[in-house]
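Figure S7 source data.
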Amino acid sequence: MRLGIISALAEEQHGLIEALESPYKLVHGMREYTGGKLWEIDAVCVLSRIGKVAAAMTASILVEKFGVTHIVFTGVAGSGDKNVKVGDIVVAEELVQHDFDASPLFPQFEIPLTGLSRFATDTALTERLAAAAAQTTRVHRGMIASGDQFIGKLAQIQALKAALPDLLAVEMEGAAVAQVCFELGVPFAVIRTISDNANDDAAVDFMHFIKTVASRYAFDVIERFCKE
Ligand code: ADE
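Tokens for the predicted adenine complex:
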């Protein structure tokens, strides 16, 4: 097993790179890939930067150039449900690209030629991440939606919730990694700590959260996940 660990921003992966034993670094396509042993696990950590294209590119390179066999995306997200609070963790069971709409050629959200609008995460990885996260905070499992938009208006999140009633969280990368991993046959999981409520306060809450607690959560969960 070689585990690829992706986050969009440095704050979301803080401490993991420092925890890598015998690290080696390689810059490719404007990203720095750091490999090594992470609590006995062969791992490669990388920051994708923000958005679906950035995440898809990073996931593809991890598989094709670094030979990772499994991928975990760890980061923050906006809440997509009233029961999902700031500081809770959402572990994805399915991911949707909420801004994908090729209708009337294909149903809204469906990714042409895959026949799918939702990509399922790997059950074993998801179980283990959820178990590791449950020792840190409250954990929810279900659907996460990704799009190339920061959701920072109440009307935006309400419209998304109306279109996707089982939505738990919104972010900007997970579903892109999901499509790449589906197409390449690589098991993957997505874990997100809620930083904001994707409403009019989202930008301020996001900035505060990312500067304070975001990294601590991710570090604790990934450490437990690797050790167990
Ligand atoms: N990541 C964290 N908060 C988010 C939001 N409100 N919209 C999109 N991505 C996010």
